[in-house]
Amino acid sequence: MTDLLDLVYEAHGGLERWQRLKQVKFTGAAAGILPWPRPDFLADFTATIDPQAQNVVVDRFGAPGRRARYTPDRVDILDGSGTVVGGRDEPRRAFDDYSGGELWSETQAAYFAGYAFWTYLTVPFTLAWDGVRSTEIEPWQENGEQWRRLRVAFPADIVTHNSVQTLYFGDDFLLRRHDYSPDLLGNPLTAHYPAEYRTFDGFAFPTRRHMVHREADDSTSGGTLITLDIHSVTCRGEGA
Q1: In b/e form, how buried is each residue of 202-229, taking b as 16+ CB within 10 angstroms?
Q2: Distance, CA of 208 to CA of 176 (rounded, Å)
Q3: Cα 11 to Cα 21: distance, rounded to the nearest angstrom
Q4: What is the pLDDT of residue 99?
Q5: How far apart are CA 129 and CA 123, in angstroms?
Q6: Count of CB atoms situated within 10 Å of the CB of 13
Q7: Do 232 and 26 form a contact (C-beta atoms < 8 A)?
Q8: What's the rounded mean pLDDT across residues 199-216?
């Protein structure tokens, strides 16, 4: 299994190189069925993540000049002048009374976007974090290909969709599929497909992502539910 992880890290740009990064910034567009404050809320945004800690800043957060700052313990919403106009401590608690029938508040949207973007941009390198356990399970056949799979258990101090997820890797050891069931959404079974990889600053990132419904046997059904397109990525290391 260590050999598989070594090959996966190398295919995505190298673990040691990743661990020297201080910042990953990307521009993108998100769409689909999530209850954002309005449908085009994240149709054009820039997100800056810390690859070594769960810190994320989203610019053009719902409007030009508007910004969201995310950590697991605090979310802030800032206006164009940099003034904090919303947010809260313990932001996950903002979902305590959420019934699933209404649009998210900006604070809820910032929390979900923050941890989700961080998860998507840092996998598979987060598998090297302390407390993360990875186990290779039986391979999977899809689209005429055989993909190797890792069942991954995340510790409670890493905020992500849910604690146990499955990663699928192709013959080139790039991530082909990512299965999870988001706690905040009531644990719907989800298959997330990264595609159209491009190399940015020596790292391989998928520029198109789409999510579909997953069945209990890991087959998929129905059409695309959510999309995330990435237009550009910039990676900065020490001294950059």
Answers
A1: ebbbbbebbbbebeeeeebeeeebbebb
A2: 11
A3: 17
A4: 81
A5: 11
A6: 19
A7: yes
A8: 98
> What type of residue is 52?
Q
**How many Cβ atoms are within 10 Å of 133's Cβ, its own excluded?**
12
Q: What type of residue is 149?
A: R
Task: Report residue 184: phi and psi, to 5°.
Answer: -65, -20
DSSP-derived 3-state class of residue 133: strand
Beta carbons within 10 angstroms of residue 51's beta carbon: 21
Task: Encode pLDDT of 20-63 as tens digits.
Answer: 999 999 999 999 999 999 999 999 999 999 999 999 999 999 99
**Residue type present at position 182:** P
91/19 Cα distance (integer angstroms): 28
DSSP for 164-199 reads EEEEEE-TT--EEEEEE--GGGT---EEEEEEEEEE
Would you state the structure tokens that stand for residue 3, as one six-digit string? 């050999």
Q: Is the dihedral of CA 31, 37, 39, 41 positive or negative?
A: negative
Residue with tokens 């890792």: 150
Amino acid symbol at 136: E
Q: Is the pLDDT of residue 240 over 60?
A: no
Q: So what's the pLDDT on residue 1?
A: 54
The position carrying tokens 């809320």 is 41
Please give the Cα distance from 149 to 169 (Å, whole number): 6
For the full predicted model, state whether its pTM sits above 0.90. Answer: yes
Tokens of 177: 């599929």
- Please give the single-letter amino acid code of residue 174: L
Asked if residues 19 and 13 have their Cβ atoms less than 8 Å apart, the reply is no
